[in-house]
Write a structure and sequence with these properties.
This protein is an alpha/beta fold. The protein has two domains: about 10-85, no CATH class; about 105-270, Nucleotidyltransferase, domain 5. It has ten helices and five strands; from the N terminus they run αααααβββαβαβααα. It has helices at about 10-15, 20-30, 35-50, 60-70, 75-85, 165-180, 195-205, 220-235, 245-260, 275-300; strands at about 125-135, 140-145, 150-160, 185-190, 210. It has a five-stranded mixed β-sheet, sandwiched between helices. A hairpin with a 4-residue loop joins strand 2 and strand 3. Helix 4 packs across helix 5. The longest helix is centred in the last third of the chain and has 28 residues, at about 275-300.
C-alpha cells in the first residue's frame, strides 16, 4: 500500500485488500525497535562479508567473522537474517575422482596415516592427489600437495597431461617452498603416477616417506578430497574457461590469494591456513622465550650452602 499510495487512495486500497486504513497508518508511523535496527545493521554487515568472501560463506563462517568484529550475536540469528535476506553460499554440485590405481602390488607403499588427518607439527604429514578441470581446449589436470598441519596448499602443478611429471612438480614445489628439516610423510592414493619410478626416486632423493591409501577407499585421503570439493564447488563450477592458461591463472589466484590466506577453515578454529601458521609460530616463540627466561632464572637463583 505504501508503495502505491501516490497512484491510489489509501482508503480504496484498504477496502480492496480488506484491511483497515487506520491499521495502515498505525503501521507506517510505528517507530523501529532497537532489535529491528540491530538486525538491519547485522544484515548489512553480513552482505558485506558475504560479498568480500566470493559469496561462498554460509552462516558458520560469517558468524565467526562477526565475532572477530566484536558483534555479539548467535549463529542461529545470523542464519535467520541470511535466510530472510536471501543470502546463501553458492550452490554445491557433485564431482568424482579420476586417478586409476596401479596393478603392480610391489609399487604400493604402506598406509602410514590410517585416516588420522591431524598433524601436530608443520611439515610432518603432507597429502597429495590429482583432479581435472574442464576447459574449451580440453582437460586440465591438477596435482596438489597439502600440509595436514595447517591445511595449506604448498604444492600446485597443472598440465594437459596426467603423468608422473605432474605429481613430481607438485611435490617439488612443496619441498622448495617448505624446506622440511625432518622426513615428512607424503600420503596419496595408489594412482600409477604416485607409484611411478620417477616419483619414488624423487621422494627417496629428498628423504620423503611415502604412504598410500588402501584399495578403493576414498576416506583414506579425505583431506585432499575435501580440498578438491571446495575448489570445485566454490570456484571451478562457476567459471567457464576458454583456455587452459586461463584456468591455470584463475585456479592459482583462488588458491594463493583466497584459500591459503583468507578462507576460514572450521578444522583450524575458523582461521585461514596462513593465519593458523602465524598464530602457532607466535605461540611457539613465546613458549621458547618463557623456557629461556626460566632457564636463566634457575641458573641465577642458587640455594645457599648449609654447613653442619
Amino acid at each position: 500500500m505504501k508503495a502505491h499510495r501516490k497512484e491510489f487512495a489509501v482508503e480504496k486500497m484498504a477496502k480492496t485488500l480488506k484491511v483497515s486504513s487506520s491499521g495502515y497508518y498505525k503501521h507506517i508511523n510505528k517507530k523501529e525497535s532497537f532489535r529491528e535496527k540491530e538486525n538491519k545493521e547485522l544484515a548489512y554487515a553480513i552482505k558485506e562479508i558475504h560479498k568480500q568472501n566470493r559469496e561462498v560463506y554460509g552462516s558458520p563462517r560469517i558468524h565467526a567473522i562477526l565475532k572477530r568484529q566484536g558483534r555479539n550475536c548467535s549463529r542461529r540469528r545470523v542464519a535467520r537474517i541470511m535466510k530472510n535476506n536471501g543470502i546463501k553460499a553458492k550452490t554445491k554440485r557433485k564431482w568424482k575422482t579420476t586417478t586409476k590405481a596401479t596393478k603392480d602390488p610391489s609399487r604400493i607403499a604402506p598406509n602410514l596415516i590410517n585416516q588420522k588427518f591431524v598433524a601436530k607439527e608443520k611439515n610432518s604429514v603432507w597429502v597429495s592427489d590429482i583432479t581435472y578441470i574442464k576447459t574449451n581446449e580440453g582437460w586440465l589436470y591438477l596435482a596438489a600437495t597439502l600440509d595436514l598441519y595447517s591445511r595449506r596448499v604448498i604444492g600446485l602443478s597443472m598440465d594437459r597431461r596426467m603423468n608422473a611429471d605432474l605429481v613430481v612438480r607438485s611435490l617439488n614445489q612443496a619441498v622448495c617452498h617448505r624446506a622440511p628439516k625432518k622426513e615428512p610423510i607424503v600420503h596419496s592414493d595408489r594412482g600409477s603416477q604416485y607409484a611411478s619410478t620417477q616419483y619414488k626416486k624423487y621422494a627417496a632423493k629428498n628423504r620423503i616417506q611415502l604412504s598410500m591409501s588402501s584399495t578403493g577407499n576414498c576416506f583414506d585421503n579425505a583431506a585432499m578430497e575435501s580440498f578438491f570439493h571446495t575448489l570445485k564447488t566454490e570456484h571451478v563450477f562457476f567459471q567457464s574457461f576458454v583456455t587452459r592458461d586461463e584456468a591455470v591463472q584463475s585456479i592459482f589466484e583462488y588458491v594463493e590469494v583466497f584459500y591459503n590466506r583468507k578462507r576460514l577453515h572450521s578444522t583450524l578454529g575458523y582461521l585461514s591456513p596462513c593465519e593458523f601458521e602465524k598464530q602457532q609460530q607466535l605461540k611457539n616463540q613465546q613458549k621458547n622465550m618463557a623456557d629461556v627466561k626460566f632457564a636463566v632464572f634457575s641458573e641465577e637463583v642458587k640455594l645457599p650452602v648449609c654447613f653442619v
